[in-house]
Design brief:
Length: about 200
């Protein structure tokens, strides 16, 4: 692994310039289980439902993840859900991460417990996360920020934290690097109160 890769929030001089994520589409199991997990448990509104344009025998479900960004699923009622962990390979999805407001983090844990969805909780240094699985074994991360980071400055904050981490000689970005990045960029440092949790590093 090379250490001379430039880390910056500046856009590269590339021939294509994207404007954001439109949607991510996954192959799901059946409609009932998919709606039960993503709408009824995670609270994503089902905003569009229509036949799959490439395969009319399956249905295409569109969910709003909470900020207008969309996740979609191709589903079919003849597919059974399988909650066993997925095997990872090159090109596969390792996990999906969705944002949770810090004020609702504990409430989110309680909701998972009430629904009997097991989870792991980790303090990842610059954010705090719950990891669970959906009805098809896909790892779902529910992540919350430790500090108030403006959405339009997120890349800049992370790139600055990366530089501070490297200067510090730390293996991973830590809370102090994110806090230092906010201070250096002249942004308000507002830390949220979150439960103590292990780092999970090396798991």
């Amino acid at each position: 692994m090379t250490d001379d890769i430039e880390i910056t929030a500046d856009r590269p001089d590339s021939p294509i310039q994207l404007s954001g994520t439109d949607h991510v589409t996954l192959v799901g199991s059946n409609e009932e289980d998919t709606i039960a997990f993503y709408r009824d448990l995670l609270g994503m509104p089902l905003v569009l439902r229509q036949p799959n344009l490439d395969d009319p025998d399956s249905m295409h479900l569109f969910f709003d993840t909470g900020d207008g960004r969309i996740i979609t699923f191709f589903v079919s009622d003849d597919r059974q859900s399988n909650p066993q962990p997925l095997r990872h390979q090159i090109g596969s999805v390792h996990h999906l991460s969705f944002s949770v407001d810090p004020e609702r983090f504990v409430e989110t844990k309680e909701a998972l417990e009430e629904a009997e969805h097991s989870y792991n909780e980790f303090d990842r240094g610059i954010f705090h996360s719950l990891y669970t699985r959906d009805h098809n074994g896909l790892t779902i991360e529910l992540s919350t920020d430790k500090f108030d980071v403006p959405d339009d400055r997120r890349g800049e904050v992370l790139a600055t934290a990366q530089r501070l981490r490297e200067a510090d000689g730390a293996d991973f970005a830590e809370e102090r690097h994110l806090e230092g990045a906010l201070e250096e960029l002249g942004l308000e440092v507002e830390k949220y109160e979150l439960p103590d949790a292990p780092s999970g590093a090396g798991l």
